[in-house]
């Protein structure tokens, strides 16, 4: 029996994921968590075979949780499930030790397949992402400028470019307005930009937001 822990800050999403998993023989959700800190406590106290983890959560982001889990239990497969397109976060997830990346849009059709693959020791990525990774390994050294950003700075950049205000981002990530403002300043400095309009134009040009 594959033991799954589901981590998402929206109860309705957790219920949907539990329903999908419950419909499959040999797989069960043994625990769930609504934020990163709760997830770490739960996984430490209740060993499991795989974690299905959201990336955008208050207080501690999914990437932060993923890095900590990977450091503590490097053999535990973590499948990241996100509302964000692959282009935004998938490569960062894999670099941080994730076993796979799945968008919530494709979850109903692909979740069980992805869980089974990562539990067997494989990596789950879409064909388009696999092609991108092969292209990068083939000697493509033209890394985009945004690669200099930390994971949290990158997350804030995408939210700014999506039209969110500093206070709105603070609410969404469970951080203070001052902290988000500091991330914004760092983004502007690292990318040599002056304002949010330049951030938005850049993110659109790079295909980070629609």
The CATH homologous superfamily of the largest domain is named Response regulator
Count of discrete structural domains: 2
**Helix count, DSSP H or I runs of 4 or more residues:** 10
* CATH class descriptor name of the largest domain: Alpha Beta
Strand order of the largest sheet: 2-1-3-4-5
Mean pLDDT over the residues: 88
Described by the principal axes of the CA atoms, the overall outline is globular
Helicity, as a percent range: 40-55%
Unreliable runs: none
* Main beta sheet: 5 strands, parallel
Termini gap: 40 Å
Strand-residue proportion: 5-15%
Tell me the Rg in angstroms: 17 Å
- The chain-level structural class is alpha/beta
SSE pattern, N- to C-terminal: EHEHEHEHEHHHHHH
Query: What is the second-level CATH architecture of the largest domain?
Result: 3-Layer(aba) Sandwich
Describe the structure.
- The structure is a single chain.
- This protein is of the alpha/beta class and 210 residues long.
- It folds into two domains: 136 residues, Response regulator (Rossmann fold); 61 residues, Winged helix-like DNA-binding domain superfamily/Winged helix DNA-binding domain (Arc Repressor Mutant, subunit A), CATH 1.10.10.
- 53% of the residues lie in helices and 13% in strands.
- It is built from ten helices and five strands.
- Helix 4 links the parallel strand 4 and strand 5.
- Helix 7 crosses helix 10 and helix 8 crosses helix 9.
- The protein is globular and about 55 Å long.
């Amino acid at each position: 029996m594959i033991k799954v822990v589901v981590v998402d800050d929206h109860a309705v999403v957790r219920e949907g994921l539990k329903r999908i998993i419950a419909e499959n023989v040999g797989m069960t959700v043994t625990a769930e968590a609504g934020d990163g800190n709760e997830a770490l406590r739960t996984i430490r106290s209740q060993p499991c075979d795989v974690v299905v983890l959201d990336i955008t959560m208050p207080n501690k982001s999914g990437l932060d949780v993923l890095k900590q889990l990977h450091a503590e239990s490097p053999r535990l497969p973590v499948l990241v499930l996100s509302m964000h397109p692959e282009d935004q976060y998938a490569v960062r997830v894999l670099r941080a030790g994730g076993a796979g990346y799945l968008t919530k849009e494709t979850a109903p059709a692909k979740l069980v397949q992805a869980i089974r693959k990562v539990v067997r020791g494989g990596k789950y990525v879409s064909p388009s992402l696999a092609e991108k990774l092969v292209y990068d390994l083939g000697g493509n050294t033209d890394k985009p400028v945004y690669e200099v950003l930390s994971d949290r700075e990158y997350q804030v950049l995408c939210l700014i470019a999506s039209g969110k205000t500093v206070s709105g981002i603070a609410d969404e990530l469970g951080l203070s307005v001052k902290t988000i403002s500091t991330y914004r300043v760092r983004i502007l400095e690292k990318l040599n930009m002056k304002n949010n309009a330049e951030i938005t134009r850049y993110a659109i040009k790079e295909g980070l937001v629609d």
